[in-house]
């Protein structure tokens, strides 16, 4: 941290000017700082801050800097710096397409531009060199190009990055600059902003070529790019012959370089790139003879732009020896060239020329800017975030949605909670999955914690920052929630004029507005009290049951009671949701989201609050709520918690722009309960297409897995197991079905252990099999060797209206289905002639149904397998068509890829990361290899 750093918060000091510019984050050769100073001299009403991260080697002076580790790995600093920049600057000059805020918004600076534009900042771009110098193009046009001699893997990366940067620079409608004239070959729409050198700091009166043995210096910043390996042997040979003194300089502090150049007669610059940069300008300013390779069209461009001849003696690795010998033999020629150097630098590279170029950028306002506020690079696609209250990779429904929407050329990120199977961030195909750690700020607070720590809470001050943060967390959430209420009003006002999937609230009453005003002032007082209680340590810191089926009348009564009592409110029952909001809310705020698709109720409040806050910032976030279950009818879960889930859904469901659910009956119930304006769309949890290589040599079907002959009747149940799922009915029925086997495809848990124990008691243990799960995309293939698919659900509100994923999977597998008389599935079985129905929980009824279906099994199986309309109706491709229409309505338009053939087909839910496309460098290498073979 330097001139403009504020030690109080570790951020740059706030600038007192009408135009406030941030330049960063590269500062190569100190140019960011020099451009900032030059502009301040040129535009009196402007102040600037240069920013870069310190690498520990060749770090130049900067106004504000942080260690590279902080820049790359400190999320708190990244967020704080982003908030500081958007709140305190009017203009940003982005160097080398690098991200200013580290990986906060994406891998390069292009992902930051939309965030800065939407916050009202003006953004300019400037290229330094290799950031836009495409290796394949340079190697084709420049005989001494360094790229063919570099490691292919590194050059491949340069090729990809520079190609992307060129796309950014040439497509950006705002101000674009390059620092060296050769880069105009790659960015023709740019303006030349010359590098800046402090002429007085480099000026020297030392004579040139008057020593008996002249001194030749070569100080490359990057030896491979400068051609050092080509000229070092030549100069060393001349030195051994006593013709020159050769000084090869490397790793010298930038402050010591003027002395190095003043003591040289000839300075060798670069011999591979075909242009010149800061080092050549510094040597010219010192009045030295500069020798290097400058392409002729670059010399011509300099003359055209400046009217001056470039005072650099041209040489290539083939000619540099003779050029140096000629300069020694004819010193007057060298002195004449050296004498023109300071004047050239003073005219072109003292900062005035650069400031004139950049003034057009800093003097433009948001009104005069040619850049639309909603501009994005073409590769930044509309952002869709899918949220679920799990670690994503275990949720096949979420993954189906995500991979499908990603097929439509939308940018999909799934955000969930860290779990046993996944935490952190990873790409699965085109889908990014993000499950960040959720710190406990509020979960460990509340009356239980206060009661357990009475002594701590009676103390008028906090002893540690942890105590303060726990208390501050609740204040922070209350503040965000109140701000969200304001955002909800604005968003509802905007939605009132258009169509919406839910009823829009009436305008706030005077009483509500007064209550809100009182809450604001109370929160401000509360924060002051918290800060006062934290004063001491913060000042110091600156110094240094088996029969319970989970359903029934008693449960319904408890649920009804809790739904009407304060004890059943979600903020009391589930304080962990507040912790999740405090972590995930800021994450959502940083993403330029167009749609949040909420799976199940758990994340609905977090998504709604993000949409409310976005409305205050002038952005619109659409919400799709995917109700996987009828919340009041969820079995097994404790009634008080179900009441809390219901409370959460009731509070936020009308913030959703569209509602999706899993069955027609549930759609009608949701509309009835929440008075929705439109009937929710129905998307079944149907199976995806199996991968093309699914049936390879290693794949084993269920029957093969269990080692059962083809003639053995095999009933299969697939899915989660709890007592309300009714699998116990099937185990009991086996006593009356001799020779019939039952496969339970489920993860082992306490209920599966109970079922196995019961099978032992009944003497049917040898016919009850707990089979392993397989990947969701191959489930139909896995199950198709069974005889009959079972869905033995007991009656519960949620079960009665469900069309389960196993139901669709059985159809995909071509299996006859036996279901209990839960209405939604029973009606389909009867209507479509899929099998048989029996009374839920009735063992004798199930036995009769099994015998009936076994007698007619072949006909039913053929009827299912040979009906393409039936197969399509219960396939994921059909559901994706519904999903596509929902997204088209919500977003207004979808990319063309959404309507392409195969856009609704998904074959893998957790694919590997996408393969990178072939670059032109690979083609260039192949061409070189071919030419070499022809010569041989």
Please describe what this structure looks like.
The chain is α/β, with parallel strands linked by helices and 936 residues long. The protein is built from 39 helices and 28 strands. The longest helix is centred in the middle third of the chain and has 31 residues. The protein is elongated, with a radius of gyration of 35 Å. About 1% of the residues have low confidence.
Comma- or semicolon-separated keywords:
alpha/beta; single chain; 28 strands; 936 residues
Summed up, what is this model?
This protein has 936 residues and is an alpha/beta fold.
Radius of gyration: 35 Å
Class computed from helices, strands and strand pairing: alpha/beta
How far apart lie the N and C ends? Answer: 58 Å
Question: How many H/I helices?
Answer: 39
Quaternary structure type: single chain
> What is the residue-mean pLDDT, rounded to a whole number?
90
Low-confidence stretches: 540-548
Residue share in helix: 40-55%
- Per DSSP, what share of the residues sits in E-state strands of 2 or more residues? 5-15%
Question: How many β-strands, per DSSP?
Answer: 28
Tell me the major beta sheet. 8 strands, mixed
- Judging from the principal axes of the Cα atoms, what is the shape? elongated
Strand arrangement, major sheet: 17-18-16-15-19-20-21-22
